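Subject: Sanity check before I submit

Could someone independently write out the C-alpha cells for this chain? I want to compare against mine line by line before I put it in a report. The sequence has 254 residues.
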Amino acid sequence: MIERAPRATAFGLSAALTRATVTALRAKAPGGPGRWERKNYAGRTVELYAGAASALAATLGAGRIRPAAGVAVAVAGACGAYDDVAGVGDLRRGFRAHLSALRDGEVTSGAVKLFGVSAAGLVAGAFLKERPVDKLLAGVVIAGAAHFVNLVDVHPGRAAAAVLALGAPGLLREGPGAGIAATAMGAAAAVLPDDLGERAMIGDTGAHALGAALGAAVVAGNGRAGLVAHAAALVAAAVYGDKVSEAARASGAR
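---
Independent answer below. Compare away.
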C-alpha cells in the first residue's frame, strides 16, 4: 500500500510556504514594486512574486528530501531569475535561438541560463546516481525538464498546470521521487489561481525551478530505462521547442 501522508505533507508545506512568501514579498517589494511587475502576453500588468516564491518552496522542499536536488532547483531558479531581469524584451525562445546568437558572438541571458541549468543538472545527477551513464542521463532529465516547463510558459497557467499534470504520475511511486514531485506540485498549485487570473506570472524563475524539481523527481524515482525514456522525450521537446511552445499557446487560445 502506498503511503500518501508524506506526499500530502510535502504538497501542503510547499503550497503554504509559497503563499506565505508571496504575501511577504508583496508587503516588502524589495527594490520597489516596479521591479516585480511585467506585462503579460495581453499587455496586462502582472506580478512576479509567484516565481520567486514557488522557486523558494521547491528548493527547500526538494533539498529536504535530496540535498543535491535542492541545489539543482535553486540554481535553475537563479538562472531563470537572471533571465527575467537581463532578458526583458528579448523575444528569442528555445536553445537554437540562443546558440545561434552565441555563434555570432552575443552571450544572451538565455544562453547563460541554458548552460547554468545544464551544469546544475549534471552536478545534481552526479550525486543522485551511482553509474556514469545514469549520472549523465540524470543531468539531461533535470535540465531538460526545467527547459520544457519554460517552453510551455507562453500563456497564463500553462506552466503551473503542466507541473501538476506531469508530476502526478510520480506520486504513485515509492521513494523520494514522490516527495519531490509533491513539493513541485504544491508550489504550482499555490500559484495557479493567480496565474490563471492574470494577476501574476511565475516567469523563468518559477518555470525553471519547478521544472528542475520535476526532473529531480523523475531521477529519484526511476532506473536507467525510465531515465532513457524521459531523456529522449525531453531532448525531442528541446529540438522542437518552437512547436512545443506553439502547441501550448494554441491550447490557451480564447
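---
OP: Matches mine. For the report I'm noting this point. The mean pLDDT is 90.
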